[in-house]
Write a structure and sequence with these properties.
Layout: H1 4-24, E1 28-34, E2 44-49, H2 53-69, E3 76-78, E4 85-89, E5 93-98, H3 100-106, H4 108-112, H5 148-157, H6 161-171, H7 178-202
Parallel strand pairs: 2-5
Antiparallel strand pairs: 1-2, 3-4, 4-5
Helix pairs in contact: 1-2
Amino acid sequence: MITATTAKKDIQKLQRAIVDGLEDVKAQDIKVFDTEHLSALFERVIVASGSSNRQTKALASSVSDAVREAGFPKPRLEGEANAEWIIVDCGQAVVHVMQPNIRQYYNLEELWGDKAVRLKLGVAKPLLKIQTAPKSVVPPATGLKRSNAAKKGVAQAFPSKAQIKKTAAAKAPAKRPARTVAMTAGKTVAKKPAAKKAAAASD
């Protein structure tokens, strides 16, 4: 047994499938009307516009596919020959896909549109999180008072040229001047004969 709640959910599901099918092919000016109080044959009339014969055919085909994918019976189509006004009979809902001049002339909104259905058009897509590069560290303004710890942190993050040279000099291995090395070597050589003479004298 089909309850009123189940029937309502079914028509809402069918309605959503139809609108999604229309939006997929960029239908213009989609309107949905509740016609349950006007006719026992269907509960919704949906009107949409297509700018050309090709688009109206594409819209009708898209609606048919969307309805079947939602689990409903295959709709019946009428008017595909001239494609100025195509009717897609979905059982509980009837879709009128029309070109603008035909839609304006027949004005179905006046016939069926006394009870419009509010419908959210366009499904909101989740926003992608944009990863931004981390902000570079900027030293505090010079006019502000800073603690010793803050000053030390700023000095480490932004060393001056003098500090860079001082650090490089401390890390580099100590080199003795070439002249000093030569002099030291000469003294060592000069001392060796004297040591030999002292050893001979003691013998």
